[in-house]
Write a structure and sequence with these properties.
By secondary structure, this protein is mostly helical. The protein is 78% helix and 0% strand. It contains eleven helices and no strands. Helix 1 packs parallel to helix 11. It starts with 10 loop residues before the first helix and ends in a 5-residue tail after the last helix.
Amino acid sequence: MTAPRSLTVPPVLLAVVAILSVQFGNAIAGSLFSVVGPLGAAALRMTLAAAILCAVVHPRVRGWDRRTWAGVVALGVGLAGMNALIYLAIDRIPLGVAVTIELLGPLAVAVAGTRRWRDVTWVALAAIGVALLGLDGEAQLDLVGALLAAGAAAFWALYIVASAGLGPRARGVDGLGVAMVVAALLVAPWGASQAVGAVALDPLLLLAFAGVAIMTSAIPYALEFLALKRMPTRVFGVLSSLGPAVAALAGLIVLGQDLS
């Protein structure tokens, strides 16, 4: 009698679930900006996500060499930049448009990582679809919000490259857990005053942002980290083009933002 095969979840499915989780979580966080502000929301999200992930994973760092630590720090910087800047962007422009611009990061990674015309064609089709979704000739797009989203795109590209490079050198999601701590340390000082003041007035905000942290950080980053171990970065970059469509849907359902 043969032993049953272990269930292996396809990396594409991991990435898709991560996209759904993070975009709806971002929409929920955006609904709380009026209470804690975008940087306060980012600080609460990253701090709670780091605490939750480390409590679950218990990262083991013994034996890491200097290159592994450098990769973890780079991953943490990418996480901090993409999360803080996209929240600042969402505060000024619709969620779907912000994520559309942010997608330039993974699309750039997809283009840089391919040498085949077939892959370039898929990237081009993804870019066209993103442009059709996010560009509205009748609307006045806030320039600062667009620039903040573009900055988030650059950090998203760093996150993808660092995550893919770190995977073989760190056990499981240990590297991600430590990187989340690095990200929280970078973001928290900028939003601590808003976050602490809001939580002091309404302690239930901690529960709300614990849920946001799980939806937008702990679950999706763990799934993406595992997916990137088994998926080329160019494929992940193209697959990320689902993000703006999901973000537009989440913005409509949660925030009432209607993209024409």
